[in-house]
Q: What sequence folds into this?
């Protein structure tokens, strides 16, 4: 830094007016009345991903061409990118700040392409050797898979039990193969289960009891929700009436089912109902979906409903069957017409019967798909409270402390990424438990960067033609470079992407680039606010006062 | 940190502590022009904000010699420095004349025409903040129609159009002329680089936001500069030998009103004048476009 030069006598003055020092003694920071600062906001995509993926982070790596790094960062939080890239309902895309500008980032397609890249490269991150601890995981659905995978990566020796022949849970036996093909699933699960011992066809409560697992240092229960809800309709046990989930499991187990020329009624409006209806349609059935409310209230994911509507499937809304009778080899279904009344506890309008409007229909087959409940009839001492939380007080003392639970068995949203998150969290928790240290979940930033934080002047809009085809193109693309192109559109909401704008535009050269990020040199920053306004990502903001 | 090299020259020479107002455009321009030109440069600057905010005697912000010269004498002084360098065998040194619009469009006009006609080997930069800002925002011949200044108050806004300095300089058939903006730094730096490589009189007309003079928010300086370009009020182009023209940035042609509304100096402009400004801008841009298309170097 240059010193301030002051002449005390005329003799000290140079003969010519020549400068003797620079200006850096002049700390112009004292002029400032507001100060640039990192806002620390989270991108909405990251905020909304149930699995907790650093989406913005891997999009950034993708646009720099670092696919392996992107794969690693993604799979730090979700070991199933090829699966989720196909079946996740992508809440990450819902609030993408690009939406109001042109079209939201096609994050799920990018995720799929990264997952498929991992498969095509047979990419296997190195496994650390196992340590002294052993954990039993019951249930090989997404929750159990994630727990087993992350425990193994934390050097724990894992045995994964499942009643079925193959791992995957709903992924293998529920979701139809036209949405998630078996080759992809198998390839992904091979990687996820690297180093994990998988024991198929072991049902807890039949082939073993909870107390048989006492030799393990911890137990993770993730048996899902498989008990189809009863319709409470007279005659629902009649031959020709089957649970939707049972039907899907038969198809997925390779059974040959022919519904050619058959009239099929599917009762329900959730994801299972959609999968059942579309599967039955593919097997030749003439399908009618009966739902007691309207399309608005359907609990199925919006995309599922759209895709179902694109197929030759009849949708009958505001209809509820109340009686099923056998008429020899067919079924008579008696139904009420319904209307929507007052909203119930979950805010959806309650269906009420419209008197005197009942009607009958004749079908060959009925699939009940009105939802599933968890089934814990296996587990000694484990019972549900009225709110579906689990009461462990009846479990034997030596087991209770080391029992951990996750996935659909808990009252949490029933989705693959939620199940994955609970499995991963369980792995972290169990790891802490095994090491005897307290478990501290990472603090979450909850302030989200909105469109108002982004400076759109630095991004260009897609033209209308590209916009119209973007979603479909990416959905069907199998080229990893398409993922990089798409990642290029990311606005990096709330997170610095080292564009240098703040550094370049500061009139006072008061922004310093350090390996840890960009910060204002408060000795000189005059608080003009240009850096914050020209920050494309909204990382920088101005805060009142002359912070020093 | 990204892999880009550091912009050593200014960053490593402590370009801090100057006395320009918060959000000053001139200082953004100065550091980037100097970054391109590097240490082998002599600055020749007349009275005006640029020179005054460079420091208080005996201190200077500038990491290269910075010669303060009388208001109207920049062109002549620069030519003199050039001659001195040639005589002492230092012809590789760039002479950078760094003058405001008052110094360029008005009081230095005669001398500027003289060095242009003689094609003196000088890089002449006019940072144009569209008024005599250092002495308190008096109008200059660079002030646009409809603008408020202390000598064109709300009751009598500036009526005359801005002087077309670029056309005047082009008429001298100087080897290189370019307009540039602090909002488009890559374009600006590329032009400074090209100018440095050319011998003779090179004229750069740089758009220079001035928050206190334009009654704009200091944080808006770059946004305004960007709008000036996007609305074609200040199109970006370069001109070789006064004839071959190349537009270097295709603007989005946003309405001029978008540009005006960010600045208090245009608060009193009549709708009629604003419309006139819009149609003038369109006419000028169409003319530039047709010259661009006719030019054999028009590929952007
Ligand atoms: C038809 C259908 C379609 C769906 N589609 C989607 C979708 O597109 N996207 C989405 O995000 N979510 C979807 N879901 C929800 C999602 O599949 C579940 O939320 C998720 O699979 C739950 O994971 P989990 O690991 O908790 O349980 P599950 O996937 O159910 O896995 C539990 C495993 O434990 C086994 N098991 C059960 N009891 C025992 C026992 N006693 N002993 C040993 N093993 C046992 C089960 O057989 C199963 O293999 C769908 C659900 C259904 C039913
Ligand atoms: C011969 C002379 N007349 C007047 C002045 C007073 N004066 C100093 S700076 C200035 C304004 C300069 O305006 P401009 O060239 O546009 O530069 P700016 O201050 O706007 O950057 C004036 C009028 C002077 N220094 N010398
Ligand atoms: S633009 Fe990028 S960071 Fe922002 S929400 Fe969309 S995907 Fe996330
Ligand atoms: S641009 Fe520079 S002076 Fe202005 S607020 Fe940012 S750091 Fe401070
Ligand atoms: S302006 Fe660019 S470099 Fe600076 S904080 Fe924002 S994103 Fe990062
Ligand atoms: Mg001026």
A:
């Amino acid at each position: 830094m240059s010193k301030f030069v002051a002449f005390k006598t005329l003799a000290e003055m140079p003969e010519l007016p020549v400068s003797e020092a620079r200006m850096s003694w002049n700390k112009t920071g004292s002029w400032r009345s507001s100060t640039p600062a990192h806002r620390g906001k989270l991108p909405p995509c990251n905020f909304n991903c149930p699995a907790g993926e650093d989406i913005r982070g891997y999009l950034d790596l993708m646009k720099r061409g670092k696919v392996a790094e992107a794969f690693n960062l993604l799979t730090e939080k979700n070991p199933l990118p090829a699966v989720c890239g196909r079946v996740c309902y992508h809440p990450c895309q819902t609030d993408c700040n690009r939406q109001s500008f042109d079209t939201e980032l096609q994050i799920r397609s990018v995720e799929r392409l990264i997952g498929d890249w991992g498969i095509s490269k047979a990419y296997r991150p190195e496994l650390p050797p196992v340590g002294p601890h052993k954990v039993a995981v019951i249930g090989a659905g997404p929750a159990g898979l994630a727990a087993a995978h992350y425990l193994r990566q934390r050097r724990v020796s894992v045995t994964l039990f499942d009643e079925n022949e193959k791992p995957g849970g709903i992924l293998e036996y529920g979701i139809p193969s036209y949405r998630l093909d078996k080759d992809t699933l198998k390839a992904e699960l091979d990687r996820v289960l690297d180093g994990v011992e998988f024991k198929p066809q072991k049902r807890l409560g039949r082939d073993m009891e909870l107390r048989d697992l006492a030799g393990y240092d911890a137990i993770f229960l993730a048996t899902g929700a498989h008990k189809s809800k009863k319709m409470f309709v007279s005659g629902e046990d009649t031959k020709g009436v089957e649970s939707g989930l049972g039907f899907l499991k038969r198809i997925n187990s390779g059974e040959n089912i022919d519904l050619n020329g058959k009239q099929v009624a599917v009762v329900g409006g959730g994801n299972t109902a959609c999968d059942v209806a579309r599967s039955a349609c593919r097997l030749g059935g003439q399908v009618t979906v009966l739902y007691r409310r309207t399309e608005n209230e359907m609990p199925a994911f919006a995309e599922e409903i759209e895709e179902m509507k694109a197929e030759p499937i009849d949708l009958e809304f505001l209809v509820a069957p109340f009686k099923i009778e056998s008429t020899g080899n067919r079924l008579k279904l008696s139904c009420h017409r319904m209307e929507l009344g007052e909203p119930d506890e979950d805010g959806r309008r309650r269906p009420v019967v419209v008197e005197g409007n009942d009607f009958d229909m004749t079908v060959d087959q009925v699939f009940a798909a009105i939802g599933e409940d968890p089934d814990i009839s296996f587990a000694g001492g484990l019972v549900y409270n009225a709110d579906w939380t689990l009461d462990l007080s009846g479990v034997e003392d030596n087991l209770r402390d080391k029992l951990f639970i996750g996935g659909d068995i808990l009252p949490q949203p029933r989705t693959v990424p939620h199940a994955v998150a609970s499995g991963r969290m369980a792995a972290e928790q169990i790891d802490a438990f095994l090491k005897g240290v307290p478990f501290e979940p990472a603090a979450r930033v909850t302030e989200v960067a909105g469109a108002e934080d982004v400076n759109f002047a630095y991004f260009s809009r897609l033209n209308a033609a590209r916009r119209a085809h973007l979603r479909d193109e990416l959905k069907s693309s199998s080229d990893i470079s398409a993922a990089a192109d798409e990642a290029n559109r990311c606005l990096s909401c709330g997170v610095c992407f080292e564009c240098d704008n703040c550094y370049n535009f500061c009139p006072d050269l008061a922004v310093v680039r350090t390996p840890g990020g960009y910060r204002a040199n408060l000795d000189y920053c005059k608080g003009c606010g240009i850096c914050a306004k020209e920050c494309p990502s909204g990382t920088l903001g101005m805060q009142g006062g002359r912070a020093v | 940190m990204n892999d880009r090299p550091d912009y050593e020259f200014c960053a490593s020479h402590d370009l801090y502590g100057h006395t320009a107002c918060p959000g000053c455009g001139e200082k953004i321009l100065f550091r980037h022009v100097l970054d391109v030109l590097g240490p082998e440069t002599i600055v020749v600057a007349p009275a005006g904000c640029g020179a005054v905010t460079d420091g208080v005697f005996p201190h200077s912000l500038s990491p290269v010699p910075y010669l303060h010269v009388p208001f109207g004498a920049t062109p002549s002084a620069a030519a003199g420095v050039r001659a001195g360098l040639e005589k002492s065998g230092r012809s590789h040194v760039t002479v950078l004349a760094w003058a405001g619009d008052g110094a360029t469009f008005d009081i230095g006009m005669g001398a500027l025409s003289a060095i242009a006609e003689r094609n003196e080997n000088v890089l002449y930069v006019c940072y144009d903040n569209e008024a005599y800002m250092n002495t308190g925002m008096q109008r200059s011949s660079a002030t646009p129609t409809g603008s408020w200044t202390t000598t064109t108050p709300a009751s009598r806004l500036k009526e005359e159009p801005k002087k077309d300095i670029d056309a005047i300089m082009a008429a001298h058939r100087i080897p290189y002329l370019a307009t540039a903006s602090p909002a488009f730094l890559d374009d600006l730096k590329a032009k400074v680089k090209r100018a440095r490589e050319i011998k003779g009189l090179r004229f750069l007309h740089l758009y220079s936001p001035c928050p206190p003079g334009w009654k704009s928010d200091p944080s808006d300086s770059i946004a305004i500069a960007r709008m000036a370009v996007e609305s074609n009020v200040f199109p970006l182009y370069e001109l070789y030998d006064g004839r071959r023209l190349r537009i270097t940035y295709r603007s989005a042609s946003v309405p001029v009103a978008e540009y005006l509304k960010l600045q208090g100096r245009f608060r009193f402009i009549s709708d009629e004048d604003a419309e006139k400004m819009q149609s003038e801008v369109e006419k000028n841009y169409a003319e530039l476009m047709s010259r661009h298309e006719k030019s054999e170097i028009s590929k952007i």
Summary: The mean pLDDT of chain A is 95. The longest helix of chain A spans residues 416-435. The domain at 134-226+374-435 of chain A is CATH 3.50.50.60 (FAD/NAD(P)-binding domain). Chain A has four domains: 26-41+496-544, 42-125, 134-226+374-435, 228-371.
